[in-house]
Amino acid sequence: MKLQTLNSPLLENLEPMLNESIYHFLVEFQKGRTDFSELGSIFFRLTQTMTDPPLEFIWFYSALTFQTAKSSNLTDPHSFFLSVKDLFHSLVSFPNPSDSSYLKQVSLLAPVLYQLVNSKFSISSFNTEIECLVDAIVTHIIMCCNNDSVQQEIRAYKSSVSWVSLVPIWIADQVNENQGRVDGLQLFFPLSTEDIRQGINGDSGMAYLAGIVMIESFLMKLCLMFDSEASRKESHKDVKSYAAQIIKGFKKNPTFLVMLFKVLLEPSLPVAKLLSTTDEVILRGLLFEVALDLGSFLNYNTSPWLSDLQYKDISILWLFVTNSALQFASENGDNAGVGCYMNGFSSSQLPQQIISWVARTNMNPTTPDISSPMELIGWLLVLEKQGIKICDYSISDLHEKILKYNKKSTGVKDGDGMVVEDAPIRINGRRKRDTMGFDCEVQKQIKVIKCGHENQGDGGFCGKNEGGNAVSDQEMVDMVR
Length: 481
Prior knowledge:
Elements: H1 8-30, H2 37-48, H3 55-71, H4 77-92, H5 102-107, H6 110-118, H7 127-145, H8 167-170, H9 172-178, H10 184-188, H11 194-198, H12 206-224, H13 232-250, H14 254-264, H15 277-294, H16 308-331, H17 335-347, H18 350-359, H19 373-385, H20 395-410, E1 425-427, E2 430-432, H21 440-450, H22 473-480
Antiparallel strand pairs: 1-2
Helix pairs in contact: 2-3, 3-4, 4-7, 7-12, 12-14, 13-15, 14-16, 15-16, 15-17, 16-17, 16-19, 19-22
């Protein structure tokens, strides 16, 4: 059989066929049909004629064969697990020419993780086998990411078929059971966050999908390690070590780092399906430690895989994660953790790098003496109000997000006329209550930020708001709460 390169005209002719086949499958599946071997054979022959079959065609063929096999294995957990294992081997065995995107090779594995997470408890008697399969997934991803011959995703034209349109095929068996309680993307990506899922649309490419696969395989691997028979102390040490190794292997995809930091800005990790609340808190603390360690090597000279914009975005997210780590340690009474995180912040080049980016702006603000993440965030909030922007993220939006989650974690409730206790503010890891007068430590931070700015004129940073009026002390306190 002659192999052919899938060029744009050929693919354009095949896309209507794929769309019609997706519709046909969904209609027939809802009618109760479970055997799609005939349709699967057609798409198998089609994909085998291509030197580099698109993910959408591979997924459709694989979903047809898996759903057919799954229907006969519903009462046999071991047979079902073998079907998931076969799905993994099938997906990684599809033709991938040397110049194929590593992002596609990684993205292909999303259905395997979906099946493993959702069936974890029904096949929990095969924990060793599950761990081996997850290890194989992680190893495969690392190999793909570190293959220098593969190139980044390049799309010559706009396809009418998105990988998002294939998700209903994989979750078809859950549609009736779910009855609209959970959206389809949440079902398909059980270890992702709402924020990550909201970033998915019909235009989402392989980089974004690969990032989700990486973050989910990363979290699943670490969660499975909590089932280890090793002592808790040794187990936690291993979890932290593995987390650092996996991050190092995955770092070629900047989307993964962005997603990892965003996950750590959530009030909890999205692992409720796999871990108890107690173990989730432990894992969260361990990941904060690893994230802080990233600050020691994420610098411009040692991060050539990052563009300037990606480096700036990741640095800002790291800053907010550092602040969240301090809050986390403080709330859990972990004084040693507070000291460790402050040392990680102080020893990193990223805070000074952020300050240097600000210094290069036309406004040329005076640089304050920054000694904590919250001080740096407060400074950036004031500068953003002056119109200084150094990255794609809104500092105020990120700050508002962590405040919202901080209220949840401290039991503060909003609205509808309820009288609630004032939320505690945190300075340098210590909890303070806002009173009618300014806390002396808050005043000290404000003085640091504002020091030397009053007499610089309109060309410099002089503590004015957008309307040209001076920013009051109270406004600045509100900004850093």
